[in-house]
Write a structure and sequence with these properties.
This protein has three helices and six strands, in the order βββααβββα. It has 105 residues and is of the alpha+beta class. It has a three-stranded antiparallel beta sheet. Strands 4-5-6 form a three-stranded antiparallel beta sheet. The model has no long low-confidence stretch (mean pLDDT 92).
């Protein structure tokens, strides 16, 4: 599993950019990242994950959780989401796939 080597919030574009150690670059818009929060408050305790719409999410800070995850803190006070590196890569791949499907029409 790749690990992030650079994690950069880009406020002007409202996204989090992650450079992975396999040279993949992932852009995670704040609304996308916040909407797919994996915590139990947002997702419940089991079942399929769902997107939670949040108006104008602003990233306040982001920290490491051990050597396996990132923990963003949002301006609405939400900070219980622990995004494993594997989950972040999955979100990036899913977003790219959705973009490709929209481009194909």
């Amino acid at each position: 599993m790749p690990n992030p080597i650079l994690v950069t919030p880009i406020e002007e574009e409202k996204l989090l950019r992650i450079l992975w150690d396999d040279d993949q670059l992932g852009d995670y818009p704040f609304a996308y990242l916040r909407g797919w929060c994996p915590c139990a408050v947002c997702q419940g305790h089991g079942g399929e994950r769902r997107f939670i719409e949040v108006d104008n999410p602003q990233l306040v800070s982001i920290g490491m959780v051990g050597n396996y995850a990132l923990n963003p803190r949002w301006s609405d006070g939400h900070e219980t989401g622990i995004y494993t590196f594997e989950y972040l890569r999955d979100l990036s791949d899913r977003r790219e796939s959705q973009s490709e499907n929209r481009a194909k029409g």
